[in-house]
Amino acid sequence: MPAPTTLAALEADARRDLALIAHPRMDWLQPKTIGGAPVLDVLVVGGGQCGVVTAFALMRDRVRNLLVLDRAPYGREGPWQTYARMHNLRSWKDQSGPDLGVPSLTYQAWHEAQFGTAAWETLRYIPKELWNDYLLWLRRVVGVPVRNGVAAGRIGPATTDDGLPCLRVDTSDGPLHARKVVLATGQEGAGIWWMPDFVAALPQALRAHSADPIDFAGLRGKVVAVLGAGASAFDNAAMALEAGAAAVHLFCRRAEPMVVQPYRWLTFAGFMRHIHEMPDEWRWRFMAHVLGLREGFPPDTYARVMAFPHFTLHVGRPWTGAQVGADGRAVVATPRGAVVADFLICGTGVRMDPALVPELAGCAHNIASWADRYTPPAEEANPRLGAFPYLAPDYSFTERVAGATPWIRDIHLFGIGTTMSFGPAGASINAMGIAVPRLAAGVTRGLFEAELPRHYAALRAYDVAQVEIDPSRLAAE
C-alpha cells in the first residue's frame, strides 16, 4: 500500500488502524463518585510525551475516564520549547515509541506526510520543534484529554461512595479525585533541579540552572561560566556563545570529559524489558555504573561550542565555592584558582528528594528509597543513587514503614526517578514502547484487583445466552 500523501490521509489511516486493533473492546470499569461528584479512574500529572503516551496506552485498554493535567500552556508541555536547548533530538530518527507499535502513528509516517519521503531520507536527526509538533498531533489524533494551565498539588487518601480507596489531588483549579495517579513529570517527579548550595546562595541575577528560563540575549558581551560536562551543560554553553557572549568557560569535575554514551549500549530488548525483574544487586550494579559515568554529549553538541574560539573547556576542575566580588561579578573558587564571571549556569541535573515535590508533601516521609531497601558493597556505595525511590513492579511508590501510608501504592511514578528501579524507562524515547505498556498494565492491574468481588459477582450473574435450545429436539426421558 502506498504511503499517505497528506496528513488528513494519514490521520484516516491511523484511526482505521486503531479500530482494527481495538480488541478487547468491552468496557470493564464502573463510574465512581465521592459525595455524588465523579471520580476519575486515572489522573495523569504531566502532559509531555510520557504523560500523553501513558494516557494513550490506558485508553487502548478501555480506561476512558481519565484526564491529563499540565501546568504549562498548550504547546509548551515538556522540555522541547523550554529548557531543551539542543537543535535536534539525541535519539536516532527511526526510533519509535509514542506510537506504541502503530505504524501510522510513528514520527516517520507523520514527517513523510508533512514533508515527503525525500525529506525523510535526507533527515539526520529530528529537530526538537518538529518532535513537539508531532507529539501535539499524536495527542489530538488519539484523543487524549489534556487540561492545560493547571498545576497539581498535594496528594492524599480518600474513599469513594462505595468504599473503594482513591486519591484526592489538590490542583490550582480545585480538588480532583482519582483511583490512580501517574506522575509523569519528567525530571521533577521525585526531586528537584539541583545546583551547589554556594551557587544557589548567589543573587539570581548571577546564576541559573540549565533548566531555568535564561535571557541569553542579555549575556551578549559577558563572561559565562558553566558547571557540568553533560549534554545540557554543553547546550547551554552553545546558546550563550551563539547569543554573543564574550567568553564561555565550561568546567568538568572529571579529569576527562565523558565521550561515551552508555545509554546507547543498553538499548536492547533484554535490558529494557527485564532489568527491573533482576535481583537488586544487579539492578544497582548496572545502573550505578551507567549513572556514575554520567550522560555523554553528542558530536553535534560539541561542534556547536568548538565553532567559537572564545570557548574554553576546563577538565579536572570542580567548583568548590562562590561569592559576589567587589565589582558585583561572581567569583568561583576552584582547586586551580578563582574564576571571575558575569553569569553562572549549572548543568548539574536533579537531586532525588520527594519531600521537595509538592504532590508528595503528604507522604514523602514514608516513600522507600533504594538506601532503605539495599546496601551495596562498599566499593559500589553512592548516596546520590541511594536516594532514588525504590519502586514496585507497577512503578508505584513503596512504603518505608508498612501500613503507615498504604495509599501510596496508587501513585505511580514515570520519569527520571524510575531509573534505579527500571533503567531509563521513564526518561527515554527508545524505551517508551516497552515501558509505557508495562506501566499501563500495572495501573489496570490495580484497578482490576481493587474490584475483584464486583467482577466475580458479575461473572456469577452473567447469563447472556448464545443460542436458544429448541425443546422439540430434546430427547425424551
Explain what this protein looks like in three dimensions.
With 477 residues, the chain is an alpha/beta fold. The chain contains 16 helices and 18 strands. It has helices at 7-20, 49-60, 107-115, 117-122, 128-142, 197-200, 231-242, 262-265, 269-274, 280-293, 299-306, 370-373, 383-386, 419-422, 432-449, 452-461, and strands at 32-34, 37-45, 66-70, 146-148, 152-159, 165-171, 176-186, 191-193, 207-209, 223-227, 247-252, 311-315, 321-324, 330-333, 339-341, 343-346, 350-352, 411-415. Strands 1, 2, 3, 4, 5, 6, 7 and 18 form an eight-stranded mixed beta sheet that branches. A five-stranded parallel beta sheet has the order 9-16-10-11-12, with helices on one face. It has a three-stranded antiparallel beta sheet with strand order 13-14-15, with no helix packed on it. A hairpin with a 5-residue loop joins strand 14 (330-333) and strand 15. Helix 2 crosses helix 15 and helix 7 runs parallel beside helix 11 (299-306). It starts with 6 loop residues before the first helix and ends in a 16-residue tail after the last helix. The model has no long low-confidence stretch (mean pLDDT 94).
